[in-house]
Design goal:
The chain is of the alpha/beta class. It folds into four domains: 152 residues, DNA polymerase, domain 1 (Orthogonal Bundle), CATH 1.10.150; 89 residues, Beta Polymerase, domain 2 (2-Layer Sandwich); 74 residues, Beta Polymerase, domain 3; 236 residues, TIM Barrel, CATH 3.20.20.140. The protein has 24 helices and 17 strands. A seven-stranded parallel β-sheet has the order 11-12-13-14-15-16-17. A hairpin with a 2-residue loop joins β9 and β10. The longest helix has 19 residues. The protein is globular and about 75 Å long. Bound molecules: 2'-deoxyguanosine-5'-triphosphate and calcium ion. The site of calcium ion has 5 residues, from α11.
Length: 569
């Protein structure tokens, strides 16, 4: 797949053009194209073959030609030429969140800093201080940014890990010699970030599996290769381990390598108390093998209910499993709608009808079209005049639909003082309103909390979207008083969103669990701007499951009548 390569080149072009203070529309076009290509979930080369490039939002003939050149030659002549016009390494500086083109230029011109190492050194030697245009706060933010960038490289997002693991598993699964295959580790527990990928296989011909595994095209380097275990590093610098285990031990190995480590330790202690020894080969009583083929039989033997991988963190789940009173976690098939979708009325790529078609195929029974509000001009926010037309359009579509309904919604901006971007008379017209912060992330904890609380307090706001604002590798969550917000949400019957956009996953699992304890409802929304982004709903479900949530906790698992009743304030 060359999707990421194309996206990276387009993004770099946008960065170089920004340094050169080129036309903002041109810059935005490259950024947008990069974003859309990155979020495709099909191979761009297939799209080329089927002549569908210009169907991707933001891709015209010119960019389509560029994409073809990149996929066939691995790069782009005009990009290589453009690169020569700025000092090398300066692009790396721009990868640091909080270092914009202006700062990068300043660092280069004043201090000859060309890369991240030189920048770190200069900060340590206090050479940035006193440079005109660089404030103390800027230096602090640069340091934080460098750390975030390093952390982002250490662990990948769940979405990336899932995609990568799937590619490996897809190839191995094709072998007749593979009898069973599963991922393990943090990926199987669906943790929001994953360090490396663990794969387990049952096979009667380990040699063949190992040979195939190390020669998968994604592999850059073979780190180790034995008879039943191999480790490789992929082109994106991710480590993937593959282990072959015996059929009788598969469950025990899966349990062991799924972890978490703390969960394993607790389980092992429990086994000892019950007179067993448990390891990656099986469960033993006085050296005699008594179970190991499946996880289910092991849990049963230990006298406990099956614990879903997402719960295995030693957060109380073992104790509940012993009493057979674990929550019954929400499942993807129980999701009946998506409550956060952008159409081409604002900055989305598709018409409402296209979105409806796609969602009907997903077996949803209703959706909310939640375009941006008026002051978010960069995202095509809707003024009152456009809202009127949009409402009519939705009414027209609903008339034609059977067993499906489009909710007239909005994602309303919360301004820096906590004021909403539409007046109450406008808000009252919507079927569903989600409110969110899009600017002023650097305000104090108190201020940010009070903005969210003010929004939750509004009679017409049903959901607070992406409540902590984090973006993996770009921005940490801003600090808010979650407890205080949850209390207000409970008292005002306002739900919080689990935003399923791959770089957000916001709320996170821990906050979900806090919300559940406070009896605050959650809404899973994809924040989709293209059709295939609607498919990331599963990531939101993963977060919800890790947060112990059940069907009754999730707004969009309700049918439409129940939803309407439940969100009423
Ligand atoms: P990661 O890779 O940091 O995202 O997280 P994990 O949980 O995948 O960690 P990893 O890859 O180091 O190990 C995979 C599993 O193997 C882990 O979840 C539990 C098990 N494991 C690893 N080290 C130990 C250990 O020292 N003791 C026990 N009991 N289990 C371990
Ligand atoms: Ca791992």
């Amino acid at each position: 797949m060359k999707n990421l390569l194309v996206a990276e080149i387009f993004r770099n072009i946008a960065k170089i053009l920004t340094i050169k203070e080129d036309n903002p529309f041109r810059i935005r076009a490259y950024e947008k194209a990069a974003q859309n290509i990155e979020s495709l979930n099909e191979d761009i080369e297939r799209i080329i073959q089927e002549n569908r490039l210009t169907e991707i939002p933001g891709i015209g003939e010119d960019l389509a030609d560029k994409i073809k050149e990149i996929t066939s030659t691995g790069t782009l002549k005009s990009y290589e030429d453009l690169k020569k016009t700025v000092p090398g390494g300066i692009l790396d500086l721009l990868n640091i969140p909080s270092v914009g083109p202006k700062t990068a230029k300043l660092l280069y011109e004043k201090l000859k800093i060309k890369n991240i190492e030189e920048l770190e050194k200069a900060i340590k030697e206090k050479r940035l201080e006193g440079i005109f245009g660089i404030k103390e706060k800027t230096i602090e933010n640069i340091l934080k940014g460098i750390e975030l960038l390093k952390k982002g490289k250490e662990r990948m997002s769940l979405a990336v890990a899932m995609q990568l693991a799937e590619e490996f598993i897809k190839i191995l699964k094709k072998l007749n010699e593979v009898k069973k295959i599963s991922c393990a580790g943090s990926l199987r527990r669906q943790k929001e970030t994953v360090r490396d990928i663990d794969i387990l296989v049952i096979s009667n011909n380990p040699q063949k599996v190992m040979d195939t595994f190390v020669s998968i095209p994604l592999v850059k380097e073979v780190l180790a290769k034995g008879i039943t275990k191999a480790s490789v590093r992929t082109k994106d610098d991710v480590q993937v381990d593959c282990r072959i285990v015996k059929e009788d031990s598969f469950g025990a190995a899966l349990l062991y390598f799924t972890g978490s480590k703390n969960f394993n330790i607790k389980l092992r202690q429990l086994a000892i108390k019950k007179g067993f020894k448990i390891n990656e080969y099986g469960v033993f009583r006085k050296e005699r093998f008594v179970a190991g083929k499946t996880e289910e039989e092991i849990f049963k033997l230990l006298g406990m209910a099956y614990i879903e991988p997402e719960l295995r963190e030693d957060n109380g789940e073992i104790e509940l499993a012993l009493k057979d009173s674990l929550p019954k976690l929400i499942e993807l098939k129980e999701i009946k709608s998506d409550l956060h979708i952008h159409s081409n009325w604002s900055d989305g790529g598709n018409t409402i009808e296209e979105i409806v078609d796609y969602c009907m195929k997903k077996n949803y029974s209703y959706i909310a079209i939640t375009d941006h509000s008026q002051s978010l001009k960069v995202a095509g926010g809707l003024n009152k005049e456009k809202l009127k037309r949009k409402k009519l359009e939705i009414e027209r579509i609903n008339k034609k639909l059977k067993n499906f309904r489009v909710l007239y919604g909005a994602e309303v901006d919360i301004d820096s003082e906590g004021k909403l971007d539409y007046d109450n008379d406008t808000l009252k017209e919507f079927d569903i309103v989600i409110a969110a912060i899009h600017t002023g992330f650097k305000q104090s904890k108190e201020k940010l909390t009070s903005r969210l609380i003010k929004a939750a307090d509004n009679k017409y706001v049903h959901i607070i979207a992406h409540p902590t604002g984090r973006l993996f590798g770009v921005r940490e969550a801003y600090e808010i008083d979650m407890e205080k917000l949850l209390n207000v949400c409970r008292d005002t019957n306002t739900a919080l969103e689990i935003n399923a956009f791959p770089q957000r996953l916001d709320l996170n699992d821990l906050h979900c669990r806090m919300a559940k304890e406070k009896k605050v409802k959650l809404a899973i929304g994809t924040d989709a701007h293209t059709l295939d982004q609607l498919d990331t709903i599963n990531l939101g479900v993963s977060v919800a499951r890790r947060g112990w949530l059940e069907k009754k906790d999730i707004l969009n698992s309700l049918n439409l009548e129940e939803l309407v009743k439940t969100i009423k304030k």
